[in-house]
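Task card 7
Instruction: Convert sequence to structure tokens.
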Amino acid sequence: MFAIFKRELKAYFTSPLGYVFLAIFYAFSGLFFYIFSLSVGSTDISSVFLMMFMVLMVFVPLLTMRLLSEDKKQKTDQLILTAPVSLLSIVMGKFLAAYAIFAIGVAVMPVYGFVMSTFATVSWLPIWGNTVGLLLLGGIFVSIGLFISSLTENQMIAAIGGFFINLMILLMNTLKSALPNGFLQDVLSSISVYSRYSEITSGIFSLSSLIFFVSVIFIFLFLTVRVLEKRRWA
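Output:
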């Protein structure tokens, strides 16, 4: 797993992809920080984290589009699939490499807290809570992107597919809001990634939300392993 992780992580920095993703992350988070915090003299940066949902649902699929589709296109996937390593190790190595790039981007978020502390008293608990929430959200987006990448050899299709699934996640929240109060709305609310993430950005961090995010990540990683397992024995 570590060898795959190291290879994939290196690939992000030997191509423009890793740098482009981080540049986009820093540019948008910095812009939102200026608009919602610095320009109005506010220490509440929950809106920054909430707005990053929209940015990441678009750009994380670009980060993950090559993870498995490139191997399939270059016909190197069979070498990996027949190597003396478990499929779970392959999937986790690739997942953690993309997630490491994402985490490097997220590392800038607490820095904004230090910037605010130079002119106001900052409450650090919401900042750290939002940062953890963003890391959990990133785990879901990366696992979805990895799963879609396992289904095709075309990187662009993998990126579009990942974005489409992420868009469905957002639209689920819109559908929930359009429904009358009742059982169906409660069900959609409980499985809505956006609703769960919005709660975290509002300062509501529950054990159930943590379990939910980790479970969704696990489901998509499991599905990715199943896809590779099917290809290994095809």
